Amino acid sequence: MKKLLQVDFDFAGPFGEEMSNALVGLAKSINNEPGFIWKVWTENQAGQVAGGIYLFEDEASAKSYLAMHTARLKEMGVKEVRGQIFDVNTPLSIINNAPIA
């Protein structure tokens, strides 16, 4: 069953175009993670928060990625990473145009 991973953390920047330019390599590397399907990058400059919403093929892949990404973010100076894994209700999500079919 596909799993949605929600991650967020306090982040002082960069944001917007500067973030896009700085993290191209990281974004490309995520495509190679086992079980990875897609990611939506999230950022809130006013709230100083960043993160993402990911879709993985299964729970094991989502858990493995969360552990690896948490360690990577902590190496970058992030103190607390908040991550939650959710089941995806595919029939209802398809009604609302989710790209998961």
TrEMBL record:
Family matches, as Pfam families: ydhR
Keyword Oxidoreductase: yes
Record-linked InterPro entries: Dimeric_a/b-barrel, YdhR
Gene Ontology molecular function, alphabetical: monooxygenase activity
Entry keyword annotation includes Magnesium: no
Superkingdom classification of source: Bacteria
Keywords associated with the record: Monooxygenase, Oxidoreductase
Protein name, as recorded: Monooxygenase
Organism: Marinomonas algarum
